[in-house]
Amino acid sequence: MSWVIRVPSSTSNLGAGFDSIGLALNLYLDLKVNRSDEWEFVPASECLMGIPTGKENLVYQIAIETALQFGYNELPACKVEMKSDIPLARGLGSSATATIAGIELANLLLELELSAEEKLEIATKIEGHPDNVAPSLMGGCVIGHFDYEVNWTKAAIRDITFLAIVPNFELKTKEARAVLPANFQYQESVHASSIANVSTAAICQGNWELLGKMMKKDLFHQPYRKPLVPHYDKLEAYLEHDVYGTFLSGAGPTMIAIVDNQVVKERLADWENAYPEFEWLPLQVENEGLVTMKLNVSY
């Protein structure tokens, strides 16, 4: 049996929605899975060159971790061809897509017949929070909370561009987490939460101008992480009059600007010419999430 597993990328935090709000974007990790005599992961995209090709691969590590939870100590060997257009370690959910792909791989090989909710529970326990894995699994914009169980809901997002501005350097999540404060004072927590609450309401209403305003006020993570992205303030100021708002995608270093579709068409070439050292990716929300197909067409 052969399958294709497709998982969309994601952005998370959306300013003040720290560890809680994420949305799926139309960049993808694709796995072509065929049974084989031994485990082999074959990178078929430039950004994947150098990844582990055996059982050290993250997808396998997640798959066997999932299998162990259901009493299986091994998985049938497969050759897995991996294609991706998601920049690695840039804050666009590349590790979350591998997590979802690994869970689905175990689900298929062991015929576990896991529900979407069960997959989300496994993925969130692995990641520690739902903001990347939930949208990659469920699609769309997901607002989630994790405390022994996952509670989540979806917000509809339509007809808006999320413009990813990707630098040519990586930023590991561990490094970005290390700069965050260990504690907040009570009043500071209340203030930060009120910003996040208004941000959530703005997302649900599609009020992008209000969301952009709240993003600039975030107190949870962006003030601490901006120094790790030295061009942030300069780019934010450069785009300010053309976009609704700009935020640090996930742990960074990618920045994302929320932009009217027509404005992107009119201004993208100018932005690329002004800052050619960045990759400018106009992205849309992917509403479908994880897709698995039995392989019956050419790949």
UniProtKB/TrEMBL annotation:
Respond yes or no to whether keyword Cytoplasm is given for this record.
Answer: yes
* Recorded metabolic or biological pathway in which this protein acts: Amino-acid biosynthesis; L-threonine biosynthesis; L-threonine from L-aspartate: step 4/5
Lineage top rank: taxon: Bacteria
Catalysed reactions listed for this entry: L-homoserine + ATP = O-phospho-L-homoserine + ADP + H(+)
Q: Where is the GHMP kinase C-terminal domain?
A: 201-272
**Methyltransferase: is it a keyword of this entry?**
no
Name all GHMP kinase N-terminal domain ranges.
57-140
Task: State the Pfam families in the record.
Answer: GHMP_kinases_C, GHMP_kinases_N
Location in the cell reads: Cytoplasm
GO-annotated cellular components = cytoplasm
EC number(s): the record gives 2.7.1.39
Q: Which Gene3D superfamilies match?
A: 3.30.230.10, GHMP kinase, C-terminal domain
Q: Which UniProt keywords apply?
A: Amino-acid biosynthesis, ATP-binding, Cytoplasm, Kinase, Nucleotide-binding, Threonine biosynthesis, Transferase
Listed under GO biological process in this entry are: threonine biosynthetic process
Question: One GO molecular-function annotation for this sequence?
Answer: ATP binding
| Binding locations of ATP | P87, L88, A89, R90, G91, L92, G93, S94, S95, A96, T97
Q: Which PROSITE patterns match?
A: GHMP_KINASES_ATP
Family label: Belongs to the GHMP kinase family. Homoserine kinase subfamily.
Say what the protein does.
Answer: Catalyzes the ATP-dependent phosphorylation of L-homoserine to L-homoserine phosphate.
UniProt-recorded name of the protein = Homoserine kinase
What organism is the protein native to?
Aquibacillus koreensis
Lineage of origin? Bacteria, Bacillati, Bacillota, Bacilli, Bacillales
